[in-house]
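User: When convenient, might I ask for sequence and structure tokens for a protein?

AI:
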Amino acid sequence: MPDDQQARLRDRKRVAVEDRDTNASIMKMHPNQLMVSPETVRTLVEQQFPEWRSLPVRSIAAQGTVNAVFRIGDRLAARFPLESADIELTRRVLEFEMEAARELVGRTRFPTPEPIALGEPGSGYPLPWSVQTWLPGIVADNENPGESVAFARDLADLIGDLRAIDTRGRTFAGTGRGGDLQSHDAWMETCFRHSEQLLDVPSLRRIWATLRDLPRGAAEDVMAHGDLIPGNLLVSAGRLAGIIDVGGFGPADPSLDLVSAWCQRSRKSPRSA
């Protein structure tokens, strides 16, 4: 996949969801957002995958920022891109995500989704869509395991498992998290501009000017999930039960794995800070 497409994939922000049976409405997050109903999903399944025709279709209580997710029976989950885009570009992105997920299956002791099928546009929905296995568990956003030593060890084991996977000579491509800090200049400028009434932006600009020029160091790229935030970690009884949203799995700077610690630290910070 070309670098610009990989960058677009890696820059996506996702929010995982708790397993709950409901026909939840989808909050509009994009100006060109696509709305997907259970009825549309049911029709697409019946037309394109008749072997699943008898399975119930249920939307998920809380939707993500990138995909609308629907359960098909008890074992499958269908993911529908929410933002209108070019059909062929969307197909290539989904195929890239499925290939990344396929590479990861069985490579760590923690379950990850297995890609099952790629659906086509139809019944009023204009883009390709994907189907993968459903993993049980509650996302760490909803059951905070931050005080669990066992969970911390599980997460360290996961990162070790991922890094043990051969990069096969691949290196980070694109401009998203896990690469060159200087590629984030435009986004940081947007953040500074919108924070002028809230923060000491001149001081923050000076800090960023120093950070962006720091040498990367000698560490080579390693295989990483790409987005180990609480919403992508499944928890059961205070332990790591699975990892979802694995389409960004690939080579990256090892420091990217610190996002887990950063997220946990930010969740524990006082709201008034």
